[in-house]
Amino acid sequence: MTRLSYFLGIAALAAVTSAQAAELPAEIKQAGTLKLTVNSTYAPMEYRDPATNELVGLDIDLANELAKRLGVKIVWSETPFAELIPSLQTRRADFIISGISDRASRRETADFVDYLGTGPQFFVMADNEAKVATDLCGKKVGTTRSTSFPVEIEKWSKQNCEPAGKAAIQYVPGENSIDVRNQLKQGRIDAAVQGSETLPYAQTQEAGKYRVIGEPFAKGYQGIMFRKDDAALREVVTEKLTAMIADGSYKAVLDKWGLGANAVAQPMLNAAPQ
């Protein structure tokens, strides 16, 4: 994305929130409900609490607060990550807020209101001998197949392994972040990649088991994903999210989940760098 288009996106959202208040689409207002679906394997963004089996997470808290401000209830459903976008396209979901990254390839049929900084990050088992990321060149590295991370790993490998005369990273696909971590614990892969927002939680839950290597090796944003023909819904959600940022409730949710550093200053439209 160019700098100009980035700022145009911000300007477009600013215009929405400074104009007359956006209206919730009539069918949602009349029903009094939002249909939202998540992939509940991506803690701390959305997951089932092992103690209560309750659906919890940062995205769940943000969505619940948005719904409260919109005056509607949420009807939650769950689906594999690969089915999130189809669920939006087939209108099984009104929008997607489920740890999904803003990517150019996804913008052909959807728009993203970006609300959280993210980036892929390498991690290994604590006893792994790798000290720096280039120690992973030639090694098996796993990540979730349906994310942007396989492409980011390949790009990083070409930029860092090949110029150093080292073998390329061997990408190994996984179904979701839990599957990838299990592969790592079972020794089927040497390292793994997840979004930087998930690793502090994983380290807390399995203390001393994992070690992060380096900083995130690409910059991106997670976004609330809308169908392109649902501009009205996108605008009213953006308006409420902007208000949450202004009054501190957005930051409070992020701080609750240990991700205050991933906050954005304001919602951004299709702003992730490519």
Unreliable sequence segments? 1-8, 14-20
For the largest beta-sheet, the strand count, sense and barrel status come to: 5 strands, mixed
Percentage of residues assigned to helices: 25-40%
- Counted by DSSP, the helix tally is 9
Query: Could you say which overall geometry the principal axes of the C-alpha atoms support?
Result: globular
The CATH architecture of the largest domain comes to 3-Layer(aba) Sandwich
The CATH homologous superfamily of the largest domain is called Periplasmic binding protein-like II
Query: What is the count of distinct domains?
Result: 2
Mean pLDDT: 92
The CATH topology of the largest domain: D-Maltodextrin-Binding Protein, domain 2
Instruction: Give the SSE order as H and E letters.
Output: HHEEEEHEHEEEHEHEHEEHHE
- Give the N-terminus to C-terminus distance in angstroms: 6 Å
**Which class of secondary structure composition applies to the elements?**
alpha/beta
Strand order of the largest sheet: 9-8-10-7-11
Q: How many extended strands? A: 13
Mind telling me the C-alpha Rg? 19 Å
Strand content: 15-25%
CATH domain class of the largest domain:
Alpha Beta
Structure, explained:
The protein is 34% helix and 23% strand. It is globular and about 60 Å long. With 274 residues, the protein is α/β, with parallel strands linked by helices.
Overview in brief:
The protein is of the alpha/beta class. The chain is built from 9 helices and 13 strands.
